[in-house]
Design a protein that fits this description.
Blueprint (H helix, E strand, L loop, with lengths): L1 H23 L4 H15 L1 H11 L2 H4 L2 H13 L3 H14 L7 H13 L2 H14 L4 H11 L3
């Protein structure tokens, strides 16, 4: 119980600080990304996605982290077709084809769609490219627990 209270306080302070920094330095896409993650934790996918779209320039939405996170949020909201298009856009945008990020995003979207075989294929591809990718490792556990 004490840990939960501390976590709520810490995220509240983090949200306030990131809000200030994200608005003061609108070109710092990585600080904004952290802000979007905190909003997601506190208020859910819709609030985070609305803020992401409102605060990000079109160039910033193309940032691999932001585009991947937006796709995952769209999937969480049930917008699967849009999420898959965004994941494909991410894969297309990346010049280096040996980066696991797009496959992690595809795996997450397929997981949220309930498509275990597709999710498993995508996460295995991500792990083939980078066996140490934490996001892929965590996602693999979730996928393996699917019925």
């Amino acid at each position: 119980e004490k840990a939960k209270i501390q976590r709520i306080k810490a995220f509240g302070v983090g949200e306030k600080n990131l809000h200030v920094i994200a608005h003061r330095y609108p070109d710092d896409v990585y600080t904004k990304a952290e802000y979007f993650e905190v909003l997601h934790y506190h208020y859910g996918p819709k609030a985070a996605l609305d803020t992401l779209y409102r605060m990000s320039s079109s160039d910033q939405v193309q940032n691999p982290f932001v585009l991947g996170f937006a796709a995952e949020l769209e999937a969480e909201l049930g917008n699967f077709e849009k999420a898959l298009k965004m994941a494909e856009q991410l894969r297309t945008n990346l010049k280096n084809r040996n980066v696991p990020k797009p496959y992690v995003v595809f795996a997450d979207v397929y997981h949220k769609m309930g498509k275990k075989a597709d999710a498993k294929r995508a996460v295995e591809q991500a792990l083939k490219l980078d066996a140490g990718n934490i996001d892929a490792q965590r996602l693999k556990i979730k996928i393996n627990e699917m019925k």
